[in-house]
Write a structure and sequence with these properties.
The chain has 283 residues and is an alpha/beta fold. The chain has ten helices and twelve strands. The strands form three sheets. An eight-stranded parallel barrel has the order 1-2-3-4-7-8-9-12. Strands 5-6 form a two-stranded antiparallel sheet. α8 packs parallel to α9 (228-241).
Length: 283
């Protein structure tokens, strides 16, 4: 069993399309990888052996896609126990999930927004506490991209996230691209919202690209380069947290060559390094 490895620095999403290029040489700035357990926990044979070879060399983050933390249906506790075993098998120390719902009686295959209400805070926080009890660790919950505000909205997104994190006593997985997309689509200031989030609990950060529809709606696609306003949000997050929070570049399709992705990972590392002396001086 690999020794436990905690992620640090800048990382990249683990995608099968990239494995051949990575096997030829991992860019120096790339310090860890992220995977979805839904895609790998049941893998056997050659895929399992290849993954094990990589998790013995690099830290991996386990980022869930299907737990439905805020959903109406019961938590899949059998799946949580499988995740726990999978993480132990590969020496993973960090699990994060989306602050969303994606299943009722059956999977819905989409991340749907939660009502930003006090009732939803209590419901979701209780489910997160149960997840943490089963996994025997604190998890990070991710602010998600949304394209509508469901009925019952009482709180801002930042207020809702802060309330859930505090009541659940969990950690924050900050996605700066989701924050930017939501601020544009719903008409609020992204930097003000960033400052309202519980950044003191940030354990992990995502950065990614998005695309604009003809009507101006931004869609969180993970299929395009990171834009300057999102890099600026990331730098602002590091100004509050320091550059020590592990940060992953998400890219799910439209893959450029590995050198292009490596340049974006290197930009993350550059911003992390630039933030550390300033943050330590303030502290």
């Amino acid at each position: 069993m690999p020794a436990q490895r905690s992620p640090t620095g800048a990382g990249l999403g683990w995608r099968r399309e990239l494995i051949t290029a990575l096997a030829a040489g991992v860019p120096p700035a790339l310090q860890f990888f992220e995977l979805a357990p839904e895609n790998w926990a049941g893998a056997g044979g050659r895929s399992a052996r290849e993954l094990r070879a990589w998790t013995e060399r690099y830290p991996f983050v386990c980022h869930g896609l299907s737990l439905s933390l805020g959903g109406p249906g019961p938590l899949d506790e059998d799946w949580l126990r499988r995740i726990k075993g999978f993480m132990r098998q590969h020496g993973m120390t960090l699990y994060t999930e989306h602050l969303a719902w994606c299943a009722d009686e059956h999977p819905l295959y989409d991340l749907l927004p939660l009502p930003l209400s006090e009732e939803a805070v209590h419901w979701t926080a209780a489910r997160i506490r149960r997840v943490q009890d089963i996994l025997e660790m604190r998890i990070g919950v991710e602010n998600t991209s949304t394209y509508l505000l469901p009925p019952g909205t009482e709180l801002s997104e930042a207020e809702f996230v802060r309330a859930v994190v505090q009541e659940a006593d969990c950690l924050l997985h900050l996605d700066v691209n989701n924050l930017y997309v939501n601020s544009h689509n719903h008409g609020y200031d992204a930097h003000a919202a960033l400052q309202a989030l519980p950044l003191e609990r940030a354990c992990y950060i995502h950065v990614a690209g998005h695309e604009a529809e003809p009507d101006g709606l931004l869609i969180d696609t993970h299929g395009a380069p990171v834009v300057d306003p999102v890099w600026e949000l990331l730098a602002a997050a590091y100004a509050r947290t320091g550059g020590h929070v592990p940060t992953c570049l998400e890219r799910d399709f439209n893959f450029p060559g590995l050198p292009v992705l490596a340049a974006e990972v290197a930009q993350i590392a550059h911003l992390q390094a630039a933030a550390q002396p300033a943050h330590e001086a303030v502290a």
